[in-house]
Known about the structure:
By secondary structure, this protein is mainly β. Helix content is about 15%, strand content about 45%. The protein contains five helices and 20 strands. It has helices at about 50-55, 115-120, 175-180, 215-225, 225-230, and strands at about 1-5, 10, 15-20, 25, 35, 45, 60-65, 70-75, 80-85, 90-95, 100, 105-110, 125-130, 130-140, 145, 155, 160-165, 170, 185-190, 195.
Amino acid sequence: MEVSFGNASTHGKMASLNIGYKESVHVLHPNQIVGFLGKSEQREDSLMKLPSMFRKRRFIQSRLHGPATVMLGLPEGYNITIVPVGAEDDLLYEFRHVLFYTDGVTFTSHLQNVKNTLITQDLVKMMFKGPGSLGLLTTGPLYPMDLDVENPLFVDMSCLVAYPRNAKLRLCVYGNTLASQHMNYQWEMTGHGQVLLQPCKPDRKLDEHMKSDSLFRRVAREVIPFGGIFIK
């Protein structure tokens, strides 16, 4: 699969996915598909599995078969970043950031401990293995930062997109008294490998999947034909 953006960078607000013959892409936010060059039967929508429904706050996902071209767009403030995934990758992702993944990518669940679950309100992280690619949805471009086994990296919780499975995490604040009283919770992280960060804190008003929408309204919008048009 080849990916191109409206600019020369590796991320952007519009991405064109050129899907080759016998290739396919799984799009977890079908509403972000703004254009499709292909035959009608090359798009197959299906219900997500129940755990994915809760994590993504979505009910429908799309599988697009090649040869075809699909254009994905995002509202102002969000970016698409393509991340290659290898067979030995061990990064744990926030599932809500995953916009699409290619055939060949598999994912498994990783349970957090009780303390981290209570703080993040997220019981499960997802680990992806390739070969393939992930399309990540972030607020601002995605940036990698190296971890060190001795010198800790402090990361704002709302900016952490992925981290190595074997990294050591501790919930904390840092700095003097005034600093620690006026900052969000931070992850103190040590270990090997890289973490992936989004430089902007999420604004849940920019996109529906970030909102705390009612269950009935989400079901109706996803399941009823043209529900996304008539149900706001």
